[in-house]
Amino acid sequence: MGKLMKGGQLAGKKTYITAALGVAGAVAAYLTGDASLPDAFEIGLTAVLGATIRSGINGR
């Protein structure tokens, strides 16, 4: 149970998975017409910036 509470196999990777899903969502929104290109770019950029900030905080 202790390993599960510390994140298990996903420990340290959850932020990057979430960022990748954000970028994939932005691409999907653009391709389906739900977002314009500038909107999709902004969504994807926000996801990447979140992962970059997290990496900077962790000192990687």
Task: Please sum up the structure shown.
The protein has 60 residues and is an all-alpha fold. The chain contains three helices and no strands.
Task: Give your account of this protein's structure.
There is one protein chain. By secondary structure, the chain is an all-alpha fold. 75% of the residues lie in helices and 0% in strands. It is built from three helices and no strands. Helix 2 packs antiparallel against helix 3. It starts with a helix and ends with a helix. The model has no long low-confidence stretch (mean pLDDT 85).
Which residues sit in consecutive blocks of at least 5 with pLDDT less than 50? none
Portion of residues in beta strands equals under 5%
Helix content: over 70%
Oligomer state of the chains in this structure: single chain
The residue-averaged pLDDT reads 85
Distance between the termini: 28 Å
Tell me about the largest β-sheet. Answer: none
Please give the number of β-strands: 0
Gyration radius over CA:
14 Å
N-to-C SSE string, H for helix and E for strand? HHH
Q: What is the global morphology?
A: elongated
Count of alpha/pi helices: 3
Structural class: mainly alpha
Keywords summarizing the entry:
60 residues, mainly alpha, 75% helix, elongated
What's the arrangement of secondary structure elements?
Blueprint: H1 2-5, H2 14-32, H3 37-58
